[in-house]
């Protein structure tokens, strides 16, 4: 009978460990995606110039990029760098999300 009582206990312990391992992984997000959501119309030239410098696009491509907002700007950006970019764009009149 000892084998029957120890058998069900082992799978129950394994089930308890899985959620504990999944929770820290969700909290440790280190890389983010930056998305240009919108911008003030009066700030459009400044936003285009910043996008051109940031992404290395031509002036024409930067203009098309900004006009097609909302559009993803960068992927895999560290949180500190992403926050700096969000603040810089906010200062120019753009709305950028850090997801």
From TrEMBL:
* Region ranges (Disordered): 1-22
Q: Where in the sequence does UniProt note compositional bias of the Low complexity kind?
A: 8-22
Output a single Gene Ontology CC term carried by this record.
mitochondrial large ribosomal subunit
Print the keywords alphabetically.
Ribonucleoprotein, Ribosomal protein
Oxidoreductase recorded as keyword = no
The segment(s) forming the Large ribosomal subunit protein bL12 C-terminal domain are: 32-98
Give the protein family: Belongs to the bacterial ribosomal protein bL12 family.
User: One GO MF term, please?
Assistant: mRNA binding
Q: Which Pfam families match?
A: Ribosomal_L12 (PF00542)
- GO-annotated biological processes: translation
Protein name per UniProt:
54S ribosomal protein L12, mitochondrial
